[in-house]
Amino acid sequence: MLFGRAKRNPITIADKGVKTWKYATCGYCSTGCALEIGLDAAGRPVSTRGVADAPVNRGKACIKGLFEHEVFTSSGRGTRPLSRASRHAPFAPVSWDEALDTMAERIKAIQAAHGRDAFAVVSTGQLLTEEFYTLGKLVRGVIGTNAYDGNTTLCMASAVSGYKRSFGSDGPPGAYADFDHTDCLLAFGSNLPEQHPIIYWRLAEAREQRRFPVIVVDPRVTMFAQMADLHLPIRPGTDLALLNALAHVILDEGLEDRDYIDAHTRMDNDFHKVLDEHAPDKAARVCGIDADTIRHVARTYAKAGAAMTIWTMGINQSTHGSDGVAAINNLNLLTGNVGKPGGGPLSITGQCNAMGTREWSSCSGLPGYRQLEDAADRTEIARFWGVDADFFPQSRGPTQTDIFPAIETGAIRGLWLVATNPMTSMANTERVRRALSSLDFLVVQDAYADVETVDFAHLYLPAALWGEKTGVFTNTERRVNLVEKITEPPGEARPDHEIFSALAQRWEQGRKMRFPKETAEVFDEMRTLSRGRLLDISGMTHERLRAARGLQWPCPEGAERGAPRLYADGHFAHEDGKARLLALPFDDNNERPDADYPFWLNSGRLVEHFHTRTKTGKLGNLNKFSPQPFMEINPDAARALGIGNMDYVRLVSRRGEAVVMAQLTARVPQDMVFIPFHFHDCVNRLTLGLLDPHSRQPAFKQCAVRVERVDQAEAARMEANARAF
Ligand SMILES: Nc1nc2c(c(=O)[nH]1)N[C@H]1C(S)=C(S)[C@@H](COP(=O)(O)OP(=O)(O)OC[C@H]3O[C@@H](n4cnc5c(=O)[nH]c(N)nc54)[C@H](O)[C@@H]3O)O[C@H]1N2
Ligand SMILES: Nc1nc2c(c(=O)[nH]1)N[C@H]1C(S)=C(S)[C@@H](COP(=O)(O)OP(=O)(O)OC[C@H]3O[C@@H](n4cnc5c(=O)[nH]c(N)nc54)[C@H](O)[C@@H]3O)O[C@H]1N2
Ligand code: SF4
Ligand SMILES: [Mo]
Asked: Comparing C-alpha atoms, which of 351, 471, 488 is closest to residue 73?
């Protein structure tokens, strides 16, 4: 029997006239898909495809990856350096030499008048690793400011901090291949099918081969929750209470792996005492998951042959993000699920090269997971770079979330933003606006000239984008992979590493040091510095990476391939080789809904957009799916307020207001609204962003708002003006 049309038209794929294919790891999320960009006879990028024999994606790509070739012709790119004396004057184009001379002069003047740390640098997770390393060399070795951080503080800081506290070092221990071996997967605050579609596809493939339970913990009924065997709609910000309760059940019922615990861990003295406060009945009242379900999940997890946990921003972006990560690690340690096939705590990272910045940017220390606090590390890097070791600070400086308040107090007078857009991505936009407006000198180095932050800049430096330069990224599973130059940058835009090297020449110290021209030479320096360390990449070269379609670290010289997992021998990076079972008391300290602000405000992402839309907002094939801001609101809650589907509404928090369109959906509970954070002047006007005490990461996902009705015609007019892109 024929279903549908009697005569089917054959599917035809348009001939794009591709003459050559170039290799590049995708520039959006941290999955690390290997892509090929097709160039036509005139050398124009016209098509993208997944690389069939790539270990990560096996020929697949998601919607963002599939349109990577369109990014090269997107509007708004910067083509010339722009300068102005005050942020109210019009910009004038200047030469690169003028721009960099001005920049060096202004930095030196600020440092001379107010101290070295009065000039701050905030970078990103989206440069090539070689560029991160070069920026670190410039900032730590030449400019010498300790006010240096990356936007990874908004993203990965809690994972880094949790790994360091539990295991003694950063570094996600697992691999995607673990899906093929696991008997239970527990996911916290991650919407994998939308945010890491190809990691999700790997998971789905594994489940087709072998059934194993997938349990998703998320206050929303996300796409991932809809695909799960069990969904736990947790009360926002209370994962730590749930995690402690799971550990409580495991120990209470004797489900732990005693041999593993004895051999490989050291337990905090009050570990049991804290867990005693989290018996399932008590924890249920905090986290909103009933005691029987908690017991069921703990048993399922602990009795599985191999069990793994993954998590993303639902854990990291929380006032107890670092503790949440450590509690996830506790669960894995108690059950002996670290470094074994199918078992391990795998933090799903965010930006394409969030890992590269963690490893090599020197933001939180020195390159290759070295620490400023360690005299031997300081001496080693000082010798290698040709710097006086005393030039380095002896401890890490302020994070991004502490740099901005320091601008408000006047302690920091100048700022250099590299590939990050805090006017849209930081909490409490009004505060960010005030801080940026008060700077004596702001440099924005971005691929696009039309990002919101440029409005506040004195100097704009046009940078080459992904695919306009060659170097490496590291993905979620520690796989280093190559991005090749596909096309020339527009106009006078230059690769970030060239900008860093050229700026370094403006200091006597910089002229004495080595700033290689080619990123392959920079990669060689990193290889040398990695030898014998946890993140050993000495066995990698750009050529080997291309041939293997990416290699995981550690990959020492002579190794056939990289190691799929860390800590397989149960030896951890703490000095005594043991992992820590940490006592983690739960303190419910969020701004919570009340009579005036009765809704939780949750925020996150959509599959078709990336971050502040500087790229995806310009690409019709992506932007058309979500061209304007909206919020998810439960139909019952909307009815009670007299709000219809697609009505404009005003959201009000203690920080500010935003007008968005309402989408009525049971995806969110009655006391919550959810807004994708991609849109400018939207959710972050409302957010509070309380900080995690260990990682300084903001709790983007928890604060309180009220919803008000607005005049529909007026709101539609405002919306049309705001989005006239
Ligand atoms: N399409 C797309 N993909 C991306 C990105 C993008 O912008 N667009 N960005 C990349 C980056 S940088 C990152 S960091 C990742 C982020 O990837 P994810 O973290 O998966 O994405 P989010 O939507 O920010 O948040 C995930 C979920 O956390 C839930 N959540 C909120 N509060 C809580 C809580 O208290 N507990 C729990 N358990 N869950 C909670 C939210 O409801 C949401 O569904 O995505 C990466 N991939
Ligand atoms: N409310 C709320 N806020 C959030 C989040 C949330 O879930 N909710 N998530 C947070 C997270 S996890 C993250 S990672 C941040 C992301 O926040 P941002 O980093 O501020 O967001 P992006 O839009 O990715 O900004 C990157 C900028 O770099 C530019 N760029 C891209 N490639 C290059 C390059 O090669 N060189 C240069 N020089 N520029 C380049 C882009 O044009 C863009 O302007 O947002 C955070 N903010
Ligand atoms: S899953 Fe991530 S890395 Fe893969 S194609 Fe999509 S955006 Fe790119
Ligand atoms: Mo992120």
From this structure: 488
